[in-house]
Design goal:
- It comes from Glossina pallidipes (Tsetse fly).
- With 350 residues, the chain is mainly alpha-helical.
- The protein has 2 domains: 4-198 and 208-219, no CATH class; 281-347.
- Helices cover 60% and strands 2% of the residues.
- Strands 1-2 form a two-stranded antiparallel sheet.
- Helix 1 (26-60) runs antiparallel to helix 3.
- The longest helix has 37 residues, at 116-152.
Amino acid sequence: MDYRWNNFDLKRPPFITIPAKYSKFVPLLHAGIDEYFCSHGTYDEIFNETAALLSRLIARRKNSFRRMQGFRDICKLNAALCRLLRVDFGNELDIFRSSLPDVAYEDGTEIYIPARECYDFLLLRLIAVHKLYERIQNCCSKAADYFLHQIKVYHFFEISTLLLAVLAKINDLTIKLGDLSTNLYRRLLPFRVKLPRNIKPNVSSEPEFVFPKKLEEFDKKRLCDQSFSSLQDTTQMEEKLNHLLRADSTLAPVRAKCFRKIDIGVEVERQEKGRTKTFKVDQLTTAEDVKRFILKERKERSNNLTKCVTRNIKCHEWLGAVKVFEKKLHNGEAKKGLSVFRKFLEAKIN
């Protein structure tokens, strides 16, 4: 079987218009293409928005659901949607429509019509779009079956419900767009033999593609049947649970054991110990007393900060006060330094 339509890197043949003398089929060709564009435009925007929503949900839940089979089906669905976007069949069809004559001329009038090779490329792209719609519908049905099971067991209930709604929307739009592609193929295929061939030899040595007479129609009841069967399973499960709840279940009486009271003692209130050391600032009467006090406190603060007199003073505050005192003493202002240091200790200790 020839899968040339599945070749994503299929090169477009050079767009050539060839003179012909028969153009009565052109209005019918225009009518089929215009009808497709009118019907396709009503669903295309909603389809793209729903596909974008699905991509955002996948990106947000990638780490949570990456090992789940249903999430893998959704990733396959997202890949098919991205490929459908890259095929860009609407642009190819619009280019072909713009190259057709606007009206039908009398027989014998020479007009220029696109070559059959360009038309074959357009039909191959249309088959690829139809197959992608089939792929999308299959992925939707598989993923929907999985998330219906998740909803029944209340596993990730909210996100599963949201994903199921998005899948149902994509499936519904896929059926409508797929039917449009089927109808367009049925209308375009008969005009293939009426387009002129390019007389120049073809560079590629591939055999001519055998186009199918028609494309398969989409099964509109596939997802609905799965949902209905899942709902039936849920109903049967609820009936079994209700039957179990209605059943008279007799419980055997159990005699309670009497435990003796255990003596756990008396709660003792622990009082906080007072300060181990008391200090009066009035003891510092001279600069020498302050020097001895600083040396003593430095040693005690380095050993155990909780047992020294200046335990409530932070390190940077203590270093700053000592530095100010030494600076005043160096400048010959011993009395002023003593006064400042004593005021500092009174504010911090008391």
